[in-house]
Amino acid sequence: MAGAGSRAQRVAERRQQILDAARAMAEAAGWTAVTSRRLADAIGYTQPVLYGHFPGGKTEIMRTVALAGFAELAAATREAMGGKTGPRAVAAVADVYLDFAATHPSLYEAMFQLPIDARFAQDDAETELRAGFNALGAALGTDDDGTVTEVFWSALHGMSLLERVGRMRHEHRPNRIAELAARLAN
Amino acid sequence: MAGAGSRAQRVAERRQQILDAARAMAEAAGWTAVTSRRLADAIGYTQPVLYGHFPGGKTEIMRTVALAGFAELAAATREAMGGKTGPRAVAAVADVYLDFAATHPSLYEAMFQLPIDARFAQDDAETELRAGFNALGAALGTDDDGTVTEVFWSALHGMSLLERVGRMRHEHRPNRIAELAARLAN
DNA sequence: CTATATTTCTAGCAATGCTAACCTAAATTG
DNA sequence: CAATTTAGGTTAGCATTGCTAGAAATATAG
After folding, report:
1. Shared-domain flag, residues A136 and A177
2. pLDDT tens-digit profile of A4-46?
3. Co-location of B8 and B40 in the same domain
4. Helices A173-184 and B147-164 meet at what angle, rounded to 10?
5. Does B122 lie in the same domain as B80?
6. CB of B164 within 8 A of CB of B101?
7. Which of residues 64-123 of B touch A (CB under 8 A)?
8. Taking the model in full, what pTM does it have?
9. ipTM exceeding 0.90?
10. Contacts of B159 in chain A (CB under 8 A)
11. How far apart, in whole angstroms, are the C-alpha atoms of residue B53 and residue A127?
């Protein structure tokens, strides 16, 4: 056997290397800067190698990066809530959510702006997404049919995007969070 | 003088022709389908003519289309509110807003997903946008510093996008609107 | 050492946004 | 009316993009 691990290991390692490089490049200069040539350069190989690991090309790479993002966001919101309840829980979750989107704009973009192809709708993504959704719902308290959770998520999603394009008054974020917490908590 | 109108008129007419064609193509097949070649074909000229009318290229064309969208959305929300007050006003505005985004997805995309370049930040767009913002605020009733309006807008924006990518339960939209109206109206 | 299988690269395609340089026909001028 | 300028348009092409077929090199047997 080769000294640097099994074949499967090497493949998995390079897959991760590609994903790391893609994410780093995206966060540094946006997804348009993540071209197949630059990405291949970053990992020390040529373009076709990328397609060997991700037949779906750039889209599949973005989708896989997004998948990690879903898990991270869900974990972050769960942790933010901790044992809190009521408006304090809602505010804590909102704060962390908006921070996440603001801190990893390209990751967040991959998570939600990427067109979803039915053929590629991975169960993994759906699972992670549902976990995040449930974390938001938990912060709200009782929400039988999930309607308020949907409203809460909508507000957070819209706010994060509008903040990003400069349509929200930046210094008013605490006010917005407080308002959201006061009005949506059960 | 020429029989077909003054020079300025012809220029204005073709400008509009370009905008109409771009918008139609975008609504029919998305903005990625609006290529400079196809757009030039649609108006019966060649590519450089586009750049004669819109030096900023595709971006400027999208931005100009978006400008009309801002005006239309603001008018639609104002009309939807009519003389209503309280939750009924909020619900009516929300309904119209979400309908607008769902009916003109590409137009809405141009309005809000297009990166805003500071150099190009047109006063026109800002004015129309502010008008729309105020229309939302009016539906809410009193909102001294506009915080609730920002939350309302965020919720509508996020909801429209999440609905579009299939992340909201479609049949629950009335519930979401009712919840939004009940919790945000003053 | 040879034959096979795997991995990687070279080279190229079609499409994109955009632009320089040329052409032509109309307007302007003497 | 003839010469010249000018505006409007086209041709042709550049650099970049995502992606891929086919050649070359490398490793793995037998």
Report:
1. yes
2. 577 777 889 999 999 999 999 999 999 999 999 999 999 999 9
3. yes
4. 70
5. yes
6. yes
7. 112-113, 115-116
8. 0.94
9. yes
10. 150-151, 154, 158
11. 48
